[in-house]
Design goal:
The chain is an alpha/beta fold and 324 residues long. It has 2 domains: 177 residues, Rossmann fold, CATH 3.40.50; 132 residues, UDP-galactose 4-epimerase, domain 1, CATH 3.90.25.10. Helix content is 44%, strand content 18%. The protein has a 6-stranded parallel sheet with strand order 3-2-1-4-5-7, sandwiched between helices. A 3-stranded mixed sheet has the order 8-10-11. A two-stranded parallel ribbon has the order 6-13. The termini are far apart. It binds NADP nicotinamide-adenine-dinucleotide phosphate. NADP nicotinamide-adenine-dinucleotide phosphate binds next to helix 1, strand 5 and strand 8. This is NAD-dependent epimerase/dehydratase domain-containing protein.
Length: 324
């Protein structure tokens, strides 16, 4: 593809900002040749990107699906990191790419890369046992059918969006990639938000309760990935994560011991997920273990280690302490 036109949504965020800076510093000839644009909601962000040679498009937000679709029609590749839970916005972006293809000679295949998460594959080990101890592979397993099945039992906005992206891509003849990231850690490299949501939220909870918390037995297992490491997956149980936080909090003199505390779903929902026990269970207690076989085949390599993960817990304590 000659000089692809790339749009990134969510570039002022943690992951999107890291993706943009990765592109800006890339030695890949196609990316170096590409024109980079961002969809933003704030004038000061637009000004900052423009000063770096990135073209900003100022919109009210993803909710304005007409404007989003119109904007998308001007690009060859869209990296959508702004919101994994808005099916209408994702659809508008995919159909916008199709509109653009229809206006051109159609020789350029359009690509839509959608950042999503693994909570939409998670089980409900507390409210609906037995737990699912299974490592999902994006190559071996039919994740689409599995997610359809889960979705029929209980709709979940992130999963609804994943499925919509795949369906819209097929209808619009746009190549879609749903990147189901696990728990992301480490410092981002973008211009604005450089911290993740997940671990800092648990650190704030640990400081408030005096010790890190986990739900129920805390035995549900998730993978971790460093924000600048596209395919480095490491596992933790929720209890092990709480133990890692306790150690880091003690080292930083913010917590007084290495004790951790099991709490119930209702208490966790009140403290961490705005009252939703469903979200607390799948995002903070479930099993969701995945292997990115397709990503590895595409040449993505792990660079970060368990030591980086431990270090990021210490860094996150500093970050949360300095921002509270
Ligand atoms: N962090 C993780 O551990 C993780 C793991 C898996 C999946 N994900 C998913 O990845 C996505 C991004 O996560 P993140 O941690 O990078 O979030 P973040 O730091 O909060 O960034 C969100 C970005 O999206 C933009 N945005 C949000 N709502 C928007 C809207 N309605 N219209 C236009 N722009 C909007 C924000 O712009 P403003 O600057 O204007 O607010 C910001 O640039 C989320 O969907 C999340 O579910 C995250």
């Amino acid at each position: 593809m000659a000089s692809p036109r790339i749009l990134i949504t969510g570039a002022s965020g943690y992951v999107g900002g890291t993706v943009l800076s990765h592109f800006q510093n890339s030695s890949n000839a196609e990316i170096k040749n590409a024109s980079l644009s961002v969809l933003v909601r704030k004038q000061e962000q637009a000004d900052k990107y423009a000063s770096q040679g990135v073209t900003p498009f100022l919109l009210a937000g993803l909710e304005d699906v007409e404007a989003v679709r119109q904007l998308a029609s001007q690009f060859d590749i869209i990296v959508h990191t702004a919101d994994s839970t808005d099916p209408a916005a994702a659809e508008a972006l995919v159909y916008g790419l199709r509109d653009g293809a229809q206006k051109s000679d159609g020789s350029t295949k359009k690509h839509f890369i959608h950042l999503s998460g693994v909570s939409s594959l998670g089980d409900s080990p507390i409210s609906r046992s037995p737990a699912i101890s299974y490592e999902f592979s994006d190559k071996r397993d039919d994740l689409y059918s599995y997610m359809k099945w889960l979705e029929n039992m209980k709709p979940y906005s992130q999963r609804t969006t994943d499925l919509k992206v795949v369906d819209a891509g097929e209808k619009a003849d746009v190549k879609t990639y749903v990147v189901k990231a696990p728990l992301i850690y480490g410092r981002g490299t973008g211009l604005f938000n450089n911290k993740s949501v997940h671990i800092p939220m648990l650190i704030r909870g640990a400081i408030a309760a005096g010790r890190p918390e986990y739900i129920g037995q805390g035995t549900g297992i998730w993978d971790d990935v460093h924000v600048i490491d596209v395919a480095a997956f490491f596992e933790h149980s929720w209890k092990e994560l709480a133990e890692g936080l306790a150690e880091a909090g003690l080292k930083k003199n913010i917590l007084k011991s290495t004790e951790t505390q099991s709490i119930g779903l209702a208490e966790a929902a009140g403290k961490y997920t705005g009252g939703s026990t469903h979200l607390a269970e799948i995002a903070l207690a479930s099993n969701s273990v995945t292997k990115a076989d397709l990503a590895l085949e595409m040449g993505w390599k792990s660079q970060k280690t368990e030591a980086d993960f431990r270090q990021s817990l210490l860094d996150d304590f500093d970050l949360v302490a300095s921002s509270s």
